[in-house]
Amino acid sequence: MTTWTIAPEPYDSPVAAALWRAYYTEVSDRWYLLHEGRRTDPAELEREIAATTGAELAPPTGQLLVGRYDGEPAGSAGVRLLDPDTAELTRVFVAGRLRGRGGAALLVGAAEQAALGLGARRLVLDTRGDLTEARALYARLGYTETGPHNDEAYAEHWFRKELVVS
Q1: Residue 98: inside a domain, yes or no?
Q2: Which of 46, 45, 61, 86 is nearest to 11 (CA)?
Q3: Is pLDDT at 79 greater than 80 in this prediction?
Q4: Mean per-residue pLDDT for 28-35?
Q5: Residue 115 domain-assigned?
Q6: What pLDDT does residue 1 have?
Q7: Residue 82: which CATH number?
């Protein structure tokens, strides 16, 4: 039986870097294809990947989680504290070939537990309008759409969930 396992991962590990590259390439290409009919310029892709290290996902105020499917790195989710009660959910990603196997919900659930472990009582996130699968996932998992909590350039939808200590 093939199963998912989820565990903390250093934000600067080779596994985390490979998943960040896959995530960023996919969402960047998707945006450019939708808006400009082209893929991301390779030089821009390299600049943006290098500029966003993920250091905010390091303990004690953050956590990066990696999901492995049958032992192979296949997805990620991160949380970082914005204030003592609020954490942001970020970098939720599952490799395309493994979507539809429950990994995203497991990653988000693990991220919720990690946020509670950091002391947060709520999670917030932002996403784009074209990422309809992500918006559907968050709604299915109990996140409610809210007004903006940041001014990120590509954010078009903001969500929030009050966390329950179990």
Answers
A1: yes
A2: 61
A3: yes
A4: 90
A5: yes
A6: 55
A7: 3.40.630.30
